[in-house]
Amino acid sequence: MPGVNLELLRATLPPGCDAGSFPAYAPGSHEYVAVETGRLQLTVGGTRLHLEAGDSAYFAADIAHGYANPSPEDACAYYVAALIMRPRSRRPT
Questions:
Q1: Which domain holds residue 59?
Q2: By C-alpha distance, which of 16, 89, 14, 22 is closest to 59?
Q3: End-to-end alpha-carbon separation of the chain, Å?
Q4: What's the structural domain count of the chain?
């Protein structure tokens, strides 16, 4: 789709790992997250969500967000599908 980039990834965080904060994407961007194994702490703006294997979440990604594994023992694997809005470029005439 013109003006939209799709990113699909699988990430694994070792025990106690904080992947840090990601900046807000352009307005109209979205992320879908699904936890495969372990526990994931998803922070969106100032709100923390605690997700476990089998849980999923959606959020408007035009706000800072972050991913962390709060478990001291187990790795966490999760999937992210991000629809990131990009400015449309003008086509040559």
A1: 4-77
A2: 22
A3: 20
A4: 1
Residue 88: inside a domain: no
Q: Tokens in use for 56? A: 């999923």
93 falls within a domain: no
> Using one digit for the tens of pLDDT, what is the confidence trace for 40-67?
999 999 999 999 999 999 999 999 999 9
- Asked if the structure places residue 83 within a domain, the reply is no
% of the chain beyond a pLDDT of 70: 90
Predicted structure pTM score? 0.86
Q: How many helices (H) and strands (E) does the chain have?
A: 0, 8
92 part of a folded domain: no
Torsion of CA 83, 48, 23, 89, to 10 degrees: 20
